[in-house]
């Protein structure tokens, strides 16, 4: 063996080169290690975690080598050698990725160890390893049986198994001794019983864990292991060649899931996972409200309930398809066993389904057939004979994956390749929904079972290209499969199609109001006059045409799915269209006969129809037309009837409903109960009445008279070439005036919604008791009832106790005891989080020794200054009666408690210290005198109050000495001296007859010596000073005596105050009663993680930016109190932290203030802490303890038993899984950041043993001689110093390739979650201990019977945004987000009933959702906003969502301008995609009218309204442009009749830009007012306006409108990573330009030109005040869009930064693009990417883009006629000449450009002459124009205004027709034209910034503006702006200093600018 290793060669046959290998070795070991300890030595243990994926099986061997290295280095060497040999056998050619490097590294390591390792037990390797194996077995396994935990035994058996494998390679079989063989057989026999487990060590022998001793677990295991009467699986004849292992596999099974696995071929990991899953579910459901005595088996009702939950969707599917359910229970069968078989089968299918989990009805189909097989196997042949009908054995454990899941996965994968990474149209490929909805039709049974892979579902014409040079993801083109039921067409018509009833209502209401307003009276009552009413009836004609439009859209947009539709559905579409067309013809015809004296078109119709039609036929037609609407209204008022009919599968009902609503599997019966219906109907009726009244009186009525005047006016003096000079009635003017008003009419419902939701939300919040305790003063005033409220709401009622109806003032000591345990833990967690200091902690704690005094001991912060005030009160008391003094003291509630407690505590402390009995007697007599004098009302006569202050001072000194260091020499003498002083003051200064007590003591002691007095009180017991509870008592008394008014502001931290007040307030809100821990619902938390920060490294903390600012330094300034508290904690001598521990604590302190995974995990793990505390409270319920958190220390066994029991119950109820998608890749990565993330995640697993990490493992495996990637879902836990694998489940392929990343990441890990509820928590969230305590209350919201028959399926929780203190932007976002997650969602849930799932931290009904497609949707692009689709899906499938505000979680938000814009763009993109989705269409069509309105205005309607707001500005200004350039406005305004009426000017000013800003702020003000007080809300509102919040929100309005509109027009949606940095930073001008050029700057400059033209050409006849009145809001919008990115950009106006930005922008503009040039390096690359959406848009998108670009031609057309050179000619020739001039200029520029390229090098002189000639020619032309033709300077500027937009139009058309221009050879010209325009725009925007940067005060003002909120929080930005921190002090030394040592060098010559580092 030794010779083999020393003379070994590499796999290439050459001897190893030692030096390079050493280098590589050191490099590899430094790349990362699994060990938490990081030794500095070069020689480090082999990192078993860096094994290449293709050699994964050798990793356990290397782990064992590392484990035993210290014990026996030689055996460890042999293990490594075995690993090397095995690796070489697995991959002899080293073809796998990383294999060659790893083998070389390992070989070098072996060569080194061969020389240095020595034998320890024998002289040869064979003997050495045998002896070690035997010793290891005897010392660890044999002795450990029954003593060690199952986890420890699992590791030992794993090591023993590997050692024996190594032993067999080292020792020949014949030389293995009997003892070793015997031990090896024992290991082999028992190792399966000691595998690593998740929660339940099901088959572990020996020491029992507490969780396995729970009776509910035992009963559940008994039920699952009931395999009686299950036939043994028999293998098919093809399996005759199975090896012995497989044969053994078929002979035995321990439970029903193993039996199912043997029958169907489920994977071992899947079986183990679902076995535990099922046992935990059964145990948790069964134990609820059950007596634990005689608990031996599961109740039948438990299994029945679980069956109902799991198979509700399956049974519904069977009924829908009218097929028999295969959940069959033959007579005489074991119903419970069969039920569990069905549940187990479903779970195993679901657990292995991978991406198919998103297709719930596909799973129903699979289960349907497999359940039929189970029934056939069990009951098909009662007497088994040869040749069974069903073959009962699967060939291997991957049979199900290979034969069922993988084929469906391959269909998904082929379809998603058609998507072309989001560039293909949705209609070109089938997504998850399309493939799932295939199973909504009975045609799905054509797939048969086993599935026929030649069926239509599997045959795909687009196979992967086999061309060698073609990329793997490309597909060849062929005939595609049709969409199923719905086609996601990219058009704005989707908004009308989905919400047609709303648009019809608005259009018909508008028509009605215009008709009524047109009446001369203008009164709304005019509708009752006959002629007006007759005209109003024309709305039905409009309705008919709108219905026709709807039917046409349905017909056209669904055409791509016709091949998948039933004939009845197609017929419905066609019939609907024909009926709509018929009404659109019939109603106008019948109306024409009803009109008296018809004219025009009506006369034509009337004469055509003839006289046989009676005049009232129109009335009959209307009655017939509205009949369906009347029936719909009746059904609306009877929701139960509609619900029954929609859910019915009876053919007659289906036929009746066929016309009203097409039959669909989902979206049936979504109607609410009557009271809910009344609430949201009332809300919308009130809103619509207000909206219509406002629209009528403010928008429509004022325009009617001016419209009539303009209608009758005749204009002849046009100022341009008018194409229709003889047109009557000025239609263009009327359109220009009415256009913006109509748009505002359609949009302002959104504003009314904001107003009404604010009012309703505020009222509902007030009735929900929100904000009743919002300050420390309020908390102190109500704290006396907080304990009873806590016990009433958050603790379960003891058995036999009635629920309290009212909270009374009396304080129950049991309440105080239970409350104190939770409260003190809450305070301690805040101390651990450094939110409070040690002193604040002591002031806030409720003492644990409550039984020592006769009164309730309140926290010292309530009793602050009560004792000093009482002393002053007593000293200055002038009365004679005791009663008056005590009445005065008792008038202050807490003062009485403080006085009594102080007295009794002083007594106990002094009495406890004394040893001498006579001394104790003196104290007893003093106390007796005090007590008896109080009882007899002679206290004032027996005691002098003037001596009390002196006594208080001595007591304070006494207590401080008691708490001082015990080691001091004079400690005892000091105590004795002060104690003697105290007794002397009491007896001589305070007591009138105190000397008598001392004299009696002398007499009783038998000693009358006069000097004996001096020897009293010398014998004291100092051992008490070491007693923790006694010291707590001393500390508390000292606080009572010394703390003054300063405690009123305790705690200092605003966050601590917020948490305390919110928790106390929530106790008075409505919430379900708390169940016992055993009775509560079990739940899991799931967090998806990709590559975000886990824990900041020391390097990241101390990395400086260019201004010398580090993260650490910044956080010290922004959180000064918390930093001070941290320093106090880590420097506490009692903790005795090492420097290494302090460095780790520092990393955690910083990370817990960022948006990191470690913060999230810490917050979620508070659930376990809360559960364990709740277990303790229930444990001590019968004998309520006044003690602390843990039972008495006297009985260690009881404490351990309790602790184990609490942990067992916590395991039973709570699971936390973090889905770290790329953890496996990070593990093997050589990049430092990936390795850091991996190590930090591992550290989290080790810190929190119950934390589980799931990841997607990517391995290279050899299949059929070829290496291919194989994917697994893996679950890990921390164990010892490494992670340990629990479950491994093979996947059909890469799961994240099919859908969006985050939902796929959640989906792969959801199988590892447990329980009945699932909380989704994002990576930027936090949680709080006190909120975790309410979790069992929240989960009761799912409980049956709380809301009748219908239970919620998603519980919405409120969030606290913790990033609001960084900057003003962060504050704006925090307020906006807070208002949405509170008042916004409050109204959505109640009364509107349209709350969905908006992200996290909502809680899902887990079983409901895993049987209906999961907790999100994942189809690429269309489900970009994956979270909200979970809410849509839940609602469509019969669930509903609630919202609860008595509990909250923390959440971080983006804090910089660009990050916020990225976020807004992402959400706008998502809403654009939602508009196209089938979910929105179905909800819009299937909700009743008022819920549909709620749904629209709270989802896609909000974004469409934002777009309409922007569009209104454009329509208004282009209308003005038309009026002013044509001369119509001048003619109309100068008309006498119009001039006298100011109504027109009022109409022109009716804009709504500010209204959406108001819409944003109003809910914020209401919510802040509710929770902080309306004075605070008003102050915040004013501050926000001063900080330009309106500018910010107006800017974001443009972001929403741009991205929403572009998504619907062209697509291009994508996930945008926003970044979660600490602070904002200075963004360069070029970066801002790239981000906002198209979304804001281009639009802003267009509006500037519009406003300038409108002003310039209307000045002569319009006053400037009128102009500003009309356009002020638009100028505000323009300013916001152009300059907001720079206003909110730190150091945006600092001169040096401005200079650098200009240089950077010029460089970027000048750089040429090309392949590989990124967009931030070259303008050309960016410009190309910016047009990406146009490359992939459809023909409709291109046509729309060109039509929109044509608007820019209007400027040139209008302005050229106003030039002086045109001399008022209005012929078309003028416009033609302007085009000739423009084209000439472009041609000359093109010639110069071509000349430069062709002649610039070889014919330089000639080129210069050419340019000179052109210049001279230009001068000549200009001279002629000025002198001869009358050209003026103003004409030049006007020409610029005219021709710039035209050039931009040419550019836009060129981009839309890119391929055409490229074919013509003009593309380079288009590009250069684009570059010229970018230069112009950049210069225009940059100039004001440069000018403002000249003035230093602008930069200072901007800093104040940005960081004012941080100033008020104590952020010393002025210091950061002024200089840098002390470079002499390295960050590692910060740990030893207090906050004050972190000063800044004040240097007047240092930086006067600042930007924060991120």
Secondary-structure-derived class: mainly alpha
Give the CATH topology of the domain at 2-194. Serine Threonine Protein Phosphatase 5, Tetratricopeptide repeat
Tell me roughly what share of residues is in helical segments. Answer: 55-70%
Radius of gyration: 41 Å
**Overall pLDDT confidence:** 82
Task: Please name the CATH architecture of the domain at 2-194.
Answer: Alpha Horseshoe
Strand order of the largest sheet: 5-4-3-2-1-6-10-9-11-7
**Mass-distribution shape:** globular
CATH-defined superfamily of the domain at 2-194: Vacuolar protein sorting-associated protein vta1
Query: Strand percentage, roughly?
Result: under 5%
Terminal CA distance reads: 56 Å
Keywords: Cell membrane, Cell shape, Cell wall biogenesis/degradation, Glycosyltransferase, Membrane, Transferase, Transmembrane, Transmembrane helix
Subcellular location: Cell membrane
Catalytic activity: [(1->3)-beta-D-glucosyl](n) + UDP-alpha-D-glucose = [(1->3)-beta-D-glucosyl](n+1) + UDP + H(+)
Organism: Arabidopsis thaliana (Mouse-ear cress)
């Amino acid at each position: 063996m030794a010779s083999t290793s020393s003379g070994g060669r590499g796999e290439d046959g050459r001897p190893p080169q030692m030096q390079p290998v050493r280098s590589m070795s050191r490099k590899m070991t430094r790349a990362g290690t699994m060990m938490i300890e990081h030794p500095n030595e070069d020689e480090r243990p082999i990192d078993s975690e860096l094994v290449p994926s293709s050699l994964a099986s050798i990793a356990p061997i290397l782990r064992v080598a590392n484990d035993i290295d210290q014990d026996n280095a030689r055996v460890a060497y042999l293990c490594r050698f075995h690993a090397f040999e095995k690796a070489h056998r697995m991959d002899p050619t080293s073809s796998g990725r990383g294999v060659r490097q790893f083998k070389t590294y390992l070989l070098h390591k072996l060569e080194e160890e061969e020389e240095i390792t020595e034998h320890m037990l024998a002289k040869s390797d064979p003997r050495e390893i045998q002896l070690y194996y035997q010793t290891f077995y005897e010392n660890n396994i044999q002795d450990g049986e029954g003593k060690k935990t199952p986890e420890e035994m699992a590791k030992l058996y794993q090591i023993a198994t590997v050692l024996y494998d190594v032993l067999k390679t080292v020792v020949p079989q014949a030389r293995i001794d009997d003892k070793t063989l015997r031990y090896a057989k024992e290991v082999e026999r028992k190792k399966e019983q000691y595998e690593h487990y998740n929660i339940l060590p099901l088959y572990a022998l020996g020491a029992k864990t507490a969780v396995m001793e729970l009776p509910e677990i035992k009963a559940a295991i008994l039920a699952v292991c009931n395999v009686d009467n299950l036939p043994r699986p028999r293998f098919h004849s093809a399996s005759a060649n199975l090896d012995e292992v497989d044969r053994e596999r078929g002979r035995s099974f321990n439970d029903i899931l193993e039996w199912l696995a043997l029958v169907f071929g489920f994977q071992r990991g899947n079986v183990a996972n679902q076995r535990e899953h099922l046992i935990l579910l059964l145990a948790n459901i069964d134990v609820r409200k059950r007596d634990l005595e005689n608990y031996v088996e599961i109740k039948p009702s438990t299994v029945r309930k679980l069956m109902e939950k799991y198979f509700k969707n399956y049974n519904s599917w069977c009924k829908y398809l009218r097929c028999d359910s295969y959940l069959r229970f033959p007579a005489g069968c074991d119903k419970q066993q069969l039920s569990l078989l069905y549940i187990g089968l479903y779970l195993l299918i679901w657990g292995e389904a991978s991406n198919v989990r998103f297709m719930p009805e596909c799973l129903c189909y699979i289960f349907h057939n497999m359940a039929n097989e189970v029934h056939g196997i069990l009951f098909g042949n009662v007497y088994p004979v040869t040749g069974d009908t069903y073959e009962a054995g699967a060939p291997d454990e991957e049979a199900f994956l290979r034969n069922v899941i993988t084929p469906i996965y391959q269909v998904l994968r082929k379809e998603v390749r058609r998507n072309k990474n989001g560039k293909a149209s949705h209609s070109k490929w089938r997504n998850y929904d399309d493939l799932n909805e295939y199973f909504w039709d009975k045609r799905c049974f054509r797939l048969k079972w086993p599935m026929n892979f030649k069926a239509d579902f599997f045959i795909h014409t687009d196979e992967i290209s086999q061309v060698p040079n073609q990329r793997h993801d490309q597909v060849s083109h062929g005939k595609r499969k049709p969409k199923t039921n719905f086609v996601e067409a990219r058009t704005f018509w989707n908004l009308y199609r989905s919400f047609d009833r709303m648009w019809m209502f608005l259009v018909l209401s508008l028509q009605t109001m215009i008709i009524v307003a047109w009446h001369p009276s203008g009164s709304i009552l005019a509708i009752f006059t006959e002629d007006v009413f007759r005209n109003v009836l024309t709305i039905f004609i409009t309705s008919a045409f709108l219905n026709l439009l709807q039917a046409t859209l349905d017909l056209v947009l669904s055409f791509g799915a016709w091949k998948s539709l039933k004939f009845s559905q197609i017929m419905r579409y066609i019939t609907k269209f024909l009926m709509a067309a018929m009404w659109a013809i019939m109603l106008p015809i019948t109306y024409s006969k009803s009109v008296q004296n018809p004219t025009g078109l009506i006369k034509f119709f009337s004469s055509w129809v003839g006289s046989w039609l009676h005049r009232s036929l129109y009335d009959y037609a209307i009655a017939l037309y509205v009949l369906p609407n009347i029936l719909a209204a009746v059904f609306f008022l009877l929701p139960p009837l509609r619900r029954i009919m929609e859910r019915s599968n009876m053919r007659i009902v289906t036929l009746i409903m066929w016309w009203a609503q097409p039959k669909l599997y989902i979206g049936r019966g979504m109607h609410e109960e009557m009271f809910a219906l009344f609430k949201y109907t009332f809300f919308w009726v009130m809103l619509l009445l207000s909206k219509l009244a406002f629209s009528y009186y403010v928008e429509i009525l004022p325009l009617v008279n001016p419209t009539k005047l303009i209608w009758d006016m005749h204009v002849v003096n046009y100022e341009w070439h008018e194409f229709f000079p003889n047109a009557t009635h000025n239609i263009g003017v009327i359109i220009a005036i009415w256009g913006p008003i109509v748009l505002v009419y359609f949009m302002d419902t959104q504003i009314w919604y904001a107003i009404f939701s604010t009012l309703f939300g505020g009222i509902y919040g007030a009735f929900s008791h929100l904000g009743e305790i919002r300050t420390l003063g309020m908390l102190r005033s109500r704290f006396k009832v907080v304990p009873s409220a806590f016990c009433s709401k958050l603790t379960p009622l003891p058995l036999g106790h009635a629920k309290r109806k009212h909270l009374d003032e009396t304080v129950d000591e049991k309440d105080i005891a239970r409350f104190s345990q939770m409260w003190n833990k809450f305070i301690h967690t805040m101390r651990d989080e450094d939110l409070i200091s040690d002193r604040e902690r002591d002031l806030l704690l409720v003492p644990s020794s409550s039984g020592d005094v006769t009164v309730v001991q309140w926290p010292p912060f309530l009793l602050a200054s009560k004792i000093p005030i009482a002393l002053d009160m007593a000293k200055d008391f002038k009365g004679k009666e005791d009663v008056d003094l005590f009445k005065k003291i008792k008038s202050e509630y807490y003062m009485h408690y403080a006085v009594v407690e102080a007295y009794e505590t002083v007594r106990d402390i002094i009495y406890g210290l004394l040893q001498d009995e006579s001394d104790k007697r003196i104290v007893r007599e003093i106390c007796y005198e005090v007590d008896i004098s109080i009882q007899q009302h002679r206290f004032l006569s027996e005691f002098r109050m003037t001596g009390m202050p002196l006594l208080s001072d001595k007591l304070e000194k006494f207590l401080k000495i008691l708490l001082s260091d015990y080691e001091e020499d004079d400690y005892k003498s000091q105590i004795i001296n002060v104690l003697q002083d105290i007794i002397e003051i009491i007896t001589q200064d305070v007591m009138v007859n105190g000397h008598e007590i001392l004299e009696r003591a002398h007499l009783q002691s038998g000693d009358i010596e006069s000097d004996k007095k001096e020897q009293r009180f010398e014998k004291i017991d100092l051992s008490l000073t070491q007693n923790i509870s006694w010291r707590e008592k001393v500390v508390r008394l000292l606080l009572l005596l010394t703390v003054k008014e300063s405690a009123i502001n305790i705690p200092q931290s605003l966050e601590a105050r917020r948490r305390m007040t919110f928790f106390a307030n929530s106790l008075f809100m409505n919430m379900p009663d708390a169940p016992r821990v055993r009775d509560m619902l079990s739940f899991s938390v799931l967090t998806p993680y990709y590559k975000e920060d886990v824990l900041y490294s020391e390097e990241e903390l101390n990395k400086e930016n260019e201004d010398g600012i580090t993260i650490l330094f910044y956080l010290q300034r922004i959180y000064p109190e918390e930093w001070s508290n941290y320093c106090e904690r880590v420097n506490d001598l009692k903790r005795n932290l090492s420097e290494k521990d302090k460095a780790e604590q520092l990393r955690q302190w910083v990370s817990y203030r960022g948006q990191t995974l470690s913060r999230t995990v810490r917050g979620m793990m508070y659930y376990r802490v809360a559960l364990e505390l709740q277990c303790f409270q229930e444990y001590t319920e019968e004998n309520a303890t006044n003690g602390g958190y843990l039972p008495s220390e006297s009985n260690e066994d009881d404490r351990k038993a309790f602790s184990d029991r609490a942990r067992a119950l916590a395991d039973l109820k709570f699971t936390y899984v973090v889905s770290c998608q790329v953890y496996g890749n990070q593990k093997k990565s050589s990049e430092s950041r990936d390795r850091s993330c991996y190590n930090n995640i591992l550290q989290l697993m080790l810190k929190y043993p119950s934390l589980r990490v799931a990841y997607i493992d990517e391995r290279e495996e050899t299949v059929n001689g070829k290496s291919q990637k194989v994917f697994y879902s893996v679950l890990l836990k921390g164990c010892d110093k490494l992670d340990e694998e629990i479950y491994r489940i093979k996947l059909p392929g890469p799961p994240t390739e099919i859908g969006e990343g985050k939902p796929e990441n959640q989906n792969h890990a959801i199988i590892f979650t447990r329980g009945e509820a699932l909380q989704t928590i994002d990576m930027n969230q936090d949680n709080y201990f006190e909120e975790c305590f309410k979790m069992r209350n929240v989960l009761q919201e799912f409980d049956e019977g709380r809301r009748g028959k219908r239970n919620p399926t998603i519980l919405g929780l409120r969030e606290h945004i913790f990033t609001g203190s960084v900057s003003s932007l962060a504050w704006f976002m925090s307020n906006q987000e807070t208002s949405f997650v509170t008042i916004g969602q409050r109204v959505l849930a109640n009364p509107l009933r349209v709350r969905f799932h908006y992200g996290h931290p909502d809680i899902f009904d887990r079983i409901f959702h895993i049987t209906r497609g999961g907790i999100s949707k994942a189809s690429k692009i269309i489900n970009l906003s994956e979270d909200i689709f979970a809410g849509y899906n839940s609602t469509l499938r019969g669930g509903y969502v609630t919202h609860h505000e008595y509990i909250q979680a923390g959440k971080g938000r983006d804090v910089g301008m660009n990050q916020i814009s990225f976020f807004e763009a992402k959400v706008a993109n998502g809403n654009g995609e939602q508009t196209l989705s089938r979910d929105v269409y179905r909800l819009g069509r299937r909700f009743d009218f008022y819920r549909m309105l709620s749904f629209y205005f709270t989802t896609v309607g909000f974004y469409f309204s934002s777009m309409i707001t922007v569009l209104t500005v454009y329509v208004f200004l282009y209308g003005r442009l038309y009026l002013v350039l044509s001369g119509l406005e001048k003619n109309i305004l100068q008309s006498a009749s119009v001039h006298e009426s100011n109504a027109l000017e009022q109409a022109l000013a009716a804009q709504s830009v500010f209204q959406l800003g108001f819409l944003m702020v109003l809910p914020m003000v209401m919510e802040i007012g509710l929770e902080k007080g309306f004075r605070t809300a008003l102050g915040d509102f004013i501050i926000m306006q001063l900080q330009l919040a309106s500018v910010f929100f107006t800017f974001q309005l443009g972001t929403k409108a741009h991205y929403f509109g572009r998504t619907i027009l062209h697509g291009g949606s994508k996930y945008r990573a926003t970044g979660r940095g600490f602070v904002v930073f200075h963004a360069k001008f070029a970066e801002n330009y790239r981000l906002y050029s198209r979304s804001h700057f281009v639009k802003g400059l267009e509006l500037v030109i519009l406003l300038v033209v409108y002003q310039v050409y209307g000045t002569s006849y319009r006053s400037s005040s009128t102009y500003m009145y009309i356009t002020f809001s638009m100028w505000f919008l323009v300013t916001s869009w152009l300059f907001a990115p720079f206003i909110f950009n730190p150091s945006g106006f600092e001169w040096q930064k401005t200079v650098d930005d200009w240089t950077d922008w010029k460089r970027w503009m000048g750089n040429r693009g090309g392949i590989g040039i990124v967009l931030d390096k070259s303008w050309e690359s960016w410009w190309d990417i910016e047009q990406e959406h146009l490359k992939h848009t459809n023909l409709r998108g291109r046509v729309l883009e060109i039509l929109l670009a044509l608007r820019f031609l209007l400027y040139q057309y209008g302005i050229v006629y106003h030039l002086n050179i045109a001399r008022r000619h209005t012929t078309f020739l003028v416009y033609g000449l302007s085009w000739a001039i423009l084209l000439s200029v472009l041609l000359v520029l093109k010639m110069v450009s071509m000349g430069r390229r062709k002649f610039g090098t070889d014919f330089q002189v000639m080129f210069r002459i050419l340019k000179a000639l052109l210049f001279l020619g230009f001068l000549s032309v200009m001279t002629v124009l000025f002198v001869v033709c009358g050209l003026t300077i103003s004409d030049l500027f006007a020409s610029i205004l005219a021709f710039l937009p035209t050039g931009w139009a040419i550019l836009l058309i060129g981009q839309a027709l890119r391929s055409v221009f490229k074919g013509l050879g003009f593309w380079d010209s288009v590009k250069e034209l684009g570059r010229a325009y970018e230069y112009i725009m950049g210069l225009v925007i940059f100039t004001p910034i440069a000018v403002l940067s000249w003035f230093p005060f602008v930069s200072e003002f901007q800093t104040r503006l940005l960081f004012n909120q941080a100033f008020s929080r104590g952020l010393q930005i002025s210091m950061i702006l002024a200089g840098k921190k002390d470079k002499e002090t390295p960050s590692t030394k910060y740990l030893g200093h207090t906050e004050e040592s972190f000063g800044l060098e004040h240097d007047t010559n240092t930086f006067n600018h600042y930007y924060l580092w991120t």
